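cron nightly-structures :: item 1 of 1
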Amino acid sequence: MPSESVRQHIGGDPTADWGALPPTMRLGDRLCQHIEALIDRGEFGEGRLPAESELATRFGVSRPVIREALSRLRVMGVIVSRKGSGSYVQKRASPPSEVPAIGFGPVNSLAQVRKCYEFRVSFEGDAAYYAAQNRTPETLLPMKDALDRMGSAIGEGALGMSADLEFHFAVARASGNEFFEAVMEAMRTPLEFAVNLARSLTLTRPLDHLLTVQAEHVAMFDAIEAGDKEAARFAMRTHIENACSRVFEGPGKGRGESEVNPK
């Protein structure tokens, strides 16, 4: 019955029975789609989602799978986290974008990683520019939440990859242009690889290095929050250029912190 229930959820109108997930595709992706369908039909209203442990029990999956699905939902702007409180359904002002879905496959060489960074410099720089122009309190909230979680990851010695990725998706969403968000979603696989690589290398380096990376994200957020379009674009471009330099040339490369916040 659980498997049949889930097939009904994904292929037609969801029912009240949440059901367990069949192992026919990547669990995190399937669960993300499943929870989004429940949210769209009003299962949770605009309130707080159940705790991870309850979701894991109801869906019959492990808590890491729940965390992966929730991370994707945060990136998509479906839910928002509140520190110390949990995850909440995010009110959506407009229906989902009708921009056709495209996608890139897995990264298969370091040359592709570099190309990904090169593309992101201009693309995400412009996304930050328009995020500064069009930001609202609602679109700033997931950005700030991701920033706080990246800061917490430093103290815990954790990777912080999901929070980093969510920050960049939140910037694209704050641009107010669905095409920025659609391209980011299409690039999810190479983005995850690049961010995971950069974050993994960061953990092997001194604390000052971690704080520099965090300062770059703070500079981006501050510029976007202040509505300073050029500063936001500059901060994003600088961060991505620095990330590329740190991956391929090692720590200490790229622009210094004083250049991230030009006076």
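cron nightly-structures :: done
Confidence is low (pLDDT under 50) at residues 1-16, 93-99, 257-263.
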